[in-house]
Records
---
Amino acid sequence: MTNTAFLEACAAAIGAQHVLTDADDAAPYLGDWRRRYQGAARAVLCPADTAEVAAIVKLAREHRVALVPQGGNTGLAGGATPDASGQQAVLSLRRLNRVREIDPHNNTITAEAGVILADVQTRALEAGRLFPLSLASEGSCTIGGNLSTNAGGTGVLRYGNTRELCLGLEVVTPEGEIWDGLRGLRKDNTGYDLRDLFIGAEGTLGVITAAVMKLHPQPAARVTALAGLGSAYAALDFLALAQRHAGPLLTGFELMSDFCMQLVGRHFPQMRYPFQTRHAQVVLLELSDNESEEHARTLFERLMQTALEEGLVEDAVVAESLAQSQAFWDLREHISLAQSQEGLNVKHDVGVPISRIGQFIEETDAEIAREVPGARMVTFGHLGDGNLHYNVQAPVGGDPKRFLAENEKTLNRIVYDSVQRHRGTISAEHGLGQLKVDEAAHYKSAVELKLMRAIKAALDPLNLMNPGKVLR
């Protein structure tokens, strides 16, 4: 059947005004967040609800048109960008933007896939609850995208990834059927866990249209601190000490190298570095206490005193106000922006067992220094869950574009080989998309790939759901 027939059928199903074919209208949907990938599409399709999504999927199956599901288009691995053929169609979920229900007694919120993450946080707050998923892109990323990539963020240490915050899903299958799995149950031992198949699948097995997400009580107080340390090894010991002292009250534990802090200071001088001297590593930690701020601050001061006495921490400062706490978090959140200001770099979103982070950094830094003398390491991330953003900046005075062209493949291999030796993962929270699909095939075992391909073939035998992402 012709492309015209497909588009006419889509227009009849969801309204002609929601089938975008004009180049200017479609343009915002065809490139990725980092501007690394630029695709083309037959059209951008914008259904309003689950029934319309199902109708589009059935039409795509009938006309053999591949669909690329897209939420807020904030992904960092090209997972929501169509290829350059112009034969695929983008399926935008932005109009599925209703919060269907908040259940305070069950501590759940049911939200459609296109609801902005910050809006879920706000609606939870209005109900006296906390939705703890927090990302730098929370003002524009969507719940559907968070689920499709199993997003992490700063609260994983206490609350887990998006997968652990989800109780139930509504999904349109590749056949255009609707699976209603919107059950807000903590226990349901009735067979295969279909929910977890779709979370982290990046739209390759079906289209998530709504989800039941866990809520938590709002903490009575949050206390934030920065600590300067001599090494990543000391940071690991400090993490263990903090966990012993604070237990589940410890909600954030972010590691930032000295070079990260230098970059932020260079490009955002208004952001004050709180220490008089520089430290090899800086840790940002936060406690969330359901009792009182006094209780949290007393616990924090006891923790810091012990850490200083044991020589784990060289210096520390505890935020005295919400404004100062936000200033500490701003230092962390501006690292990526400072990198961009500094110039092009080779980015890695890796995960290794927490106990091996110090060794991983030490060994990989040394290997990169031998291979690319002068390369500058931008190392930061969620130490509490083993997720590092391990990025490599060009040498001072070097041409960043030439640096990338000459060294990206070599640096990727060094980093990923080191990750493999340390029993880690090449993608801890950004997904595979099209950026790492070939790398994943290189590092995953034959058995694992065989199982993944069997699942894909069983659910999507025509390969119309986001082809070329996660698996080739």
Note: The chain has a mean pLDDT of 94.
---
Amino acid sequence: MIIRPITDQDLEALYQIAVESGPGFMSLPNDRDFLKRKIRRSVDSFTRAATEPGGESYLFVLEDSETGDVMGTTGIESSVGLRQPLYHFQHSRQTYRSRDLNISNHVEMLNLCSHYTGCTEICTLYLRPQYRQKDYAQQEQHRQYAGKLLSKVRFLFMAQHPERFAETVIAEMRGVSDEAGRSPFWDWMRQHFLDMDFATVTLLAGSGNSDFIAELMPRYPLHTHLLSPAAQSVIGEVHDKTRPALKLLQNEGFVHRGYVDPFDAGPTVEAKLTEIRSIAGSTPCRIELADDDQQLEQVSDSLIMLANTSVKRFRAGIADKALYHPADGVLEISHALAESLQLRQGESARFLQLPLSGTPAMDAVFAVPADKEQIHAR
């Protein structure tokens, strides 16, 4: 499996992902023309010599190295809300008191805002259903890490190029909706504010047409006790299929501070760029090609995710075997792995240690002696 920047040739695969993901996956609307523009914007962003976040969009795909099939996609928006406002509801609690009557009342409310303007957003994480199946993962053991690779690869890219991204990183999590694409939260909003079905409104928002939010959505505090019980129950909750992605981000240090999507009330989580665990725990290194791949023996407690340091020709993947020399900052890898990641002898790279399934998390930097030590990637 290899992560690489998306290209124009990936349009059909991206369209199929947009169809499969269904309503509510707003970053990939089911619209070929929009997706074509999204790909082109990403291609331009990867070739831009950016020194600060300026609205660039980086879209990656996960490719099956054996078949060339696109298994999934993941992305980063360097700074959101600059071209079009990024709206959220702030979910908060207000306390009303009467000293004379000695009475107090606590009221939860939703306030429309654009709190995260200028922040970096990680987005568009989707692993196609056929690659989530156990029979696929069992063909090669490292394939079970496809979802983690899609999620964490963004942090390796950001760790290597921090100047391209904002101090605060956010992720909008998909809210609760059923198989037919109906959202309990939006059902109530539709009845009282905007008579438009959930699929249409998310398509408009995902396509960048967000003016209607400010024009037609409630501008004043909306007391949540006025909502239906079904709508109230999903505020800040995630779609069942989004729970694994949320758990991964929580393990990275992302937290929810009360901001939710205006359509399905899914939570937005945030973290400081330098405090994201995979960024702080990633290790820069220099590549050395092994004379004999047999020397790259495996160990049983960890694996690594490895990426080159390029922008335009970025590649990342999970190695089968590697040998780290911490005293010299050298990572010894096979010729085959180097070729797949477009790495040459002496070039810089960055890796991240990952615990294997069922093992305790390891320290971010290896606690090993100065002589040769093995690290394992499955």
Note: Confidence is low (pLDDT under 50) at residues 358-378.
---
Amino acid sequence: MTVGFSEQLLPPWRRAVLKVGSSLLAADGGGLSPRNAQALAGFVSDCMAAGREVVLVSSGAVAAGRAIVHADTAVDAPIAERQALAALGQAQLIGFWQGFFARPVAQVLLTHDDLRNRRRYLNARATLSALLRQRVLPIVNENDTVSVDELKLGDNDTLAAIVAALVDAEVLFIATDIDGLYDADPRRNPQARPVEVVARFSAELLSVAGGAGSASGTGGMRTKLDAAQRAAAAGIATVLFNGTRADVLEDLARDRLRGTRVHPTRSRGAARKHWLQNAPAEPGAIVVDHGAGDAIVEKGASLLPGGVLAVRGDFRRGDMIEILLREADGEQRLARGVSQYSAADIRRIARHHSREIEAILGYNYGGTVVHRDDLVLS
């Protein structure tokens, strides 16, 4: 008889990403089933009612599209055919989730290229942040109609880990169709024992996770552990739990876990600081006055356009650039960070108040030139 998971308390969290795969949503006869979705939506609603923020990463578009045209598409069907089913099913998937919530939901379709491109990464983060501020539930999915990554690899698990870092989540919840990670496959080995806490990753641990999951989904426990490892490196904890059990979800909303908890391998602040310190910078810089320099160093403030004296080089929005402090005898390195505007834009808004940005440029990416979360002292 397989041993069950004991209860453990989760630390407090403010923002999370919940990943739900096709295996939990697909109906036996095709399409989408509310069987598990009802309790998963209840967990999200309970969290949001408590003032927390949740981003939902949901698979299921292909399953929904398959039911619309009554297609019997194999997992190894041509990519174009599965992309067509995803296009058919996206609206169905969003409508399916909206039916469980009184608050509005918003569809956000991303590709891995969007998240590798720094400018599109910033745009996606700004959009998701705006939705969360408005108490909307963002529902993220791979843009299967133009990207083949998820259709080929089943890596919405990886997408969820990337989104967790994108929105600065404290925890990544991954719903599975078993109770958590075991030291052997519990479906084949009744002596399998639960792994309740993962403090570090090893080749042995990853080999235990095995291969693909159910026929409805394309990712198994291995892709979930790979995602957890990615999240851990970004300072984000991961929780693996059984999304088919309403009692587990009710307890989870009260920070009581029966499943596997994966600890981050570093703090979120340390992970972010390491990236900011080591990411390659573009050959460009912003020169600031002493008022801006003091605010950055002494108060941990963002760089505002009013403190900009000059711009060096020709960089783009999203580029890593140096921030220089003008002294009587020259300029010295003060900090580095991700620019919210291009060099050409900053030249136009320099020495102006943040509220003037839109009037000058005709658009507005926010009131900061470099946000304090994207800035590290040199």
Note: Residues 335 and 376 are 6 Å apart (CA to CA).
